[in-house]
Amino acid sequence: MASPRMIAPVKDNTEKYETYRQHISLYNKAMHEGFYLQAILIDYALLEDRFRSFLYYMGAFSDRRSIKINVSQAKEALSQMVRMYKKTANKETDSMGVMNISGKMKIIRCAVEWAIHAENITPDELYCYALKNGLEGIDQQEVLCIIEEVSAWCKYRNEIIHCLLNKNSFAVNEVVQIKAEEGFKLARRLDDQVRALKKDNLIRKKLRLPVERSKKAKDE
């Protein structure tokens, strides 16, 4: 049984838009006033959310509140892609968890690598056919580059979060502003690719999954 949430999630797209607006404002204020650690926290949250939206538009989730890949066709196909990538590149694990950023990045990386090399996918392979077509609408190499850069950025973020008081203050202060700026730029680049994948909601429509409508929300 899942533990109850300590903080209530957003209820709809209007709340999501307002949450984004507030935290982008906080990021700008933090950068202006030199609170770079707070800015890095917001950067990380933005990246987590953008990767989650990428998976949503890949048809991995039945709805926005899903906490695991729960679309059967997607789960089966993506599991196979993860196993394939592990075998050919000697990387990753077979797990399909999406509750942390590394899990999200792994699944997206494997799907994009698959889409680059997959051939002769037929319409009767419903999910793979939709995924292949949908991922052709993004800059696939850019997504792979973003994932590699975010992985490197997260190593710095993790050291800051988990070991800050064991780090040399000068070494921290020397680059923390740069890292705060870098994280935000990565989130922006990733958002461009989410928007490209979202266009026409090709994958979700092919799978007959709900397609949310929003007048204002940044990420829908």
Plain-language structure description:
With 220 residues, the protein is an all-alpha fold. It has one domain (15-206). Helix content is 67%, strand content 0%. The protein has eight helices and no strands. Helix 1 (13-33) packs antiparallel against helix 2, helix 2 crosses helix 4 (101-117) and helix 3 (72-89) packs across helix 4. The longest helix is centred in the C-terminal third of the chain and has 30 residues, at 169-198. It is globular and about 60 Å long. It starts with 12 loop residues before the first helix and ends in a 14-residue tail after the last helix. The relative contact order is 0.16.
Cα distance, first to last residue? 29 Å
Mean of the pLDDT scores?
91
| Low confidence ranges | 215-220
Number of individual domains: 1
- Helix/strand-derived category reads mainly alpha
| Oligomer kind | single chain
Radius of gyration: 18 Å
Supply the number of helical segments: 8
Strand content bin: under 5%
Describe the main β-sheet briefly: none
Approximate helicity band: 55-70%
C-alpha geometry: globular
Core attributes:
220 residues; mainly alpha; 8 helices; 67% helix; globular; disordered C terminus
Element layout with pairings:
Layout: H1 13-33, H2 36-57, H3 72-89, H4 101-117, H5 126-135, H6 140-163, H7 169-198, H8 202-206
Helix pairs in contact: 1-2, 2-4, 2-6, 2-7, 3-4, 4-6, 6-7
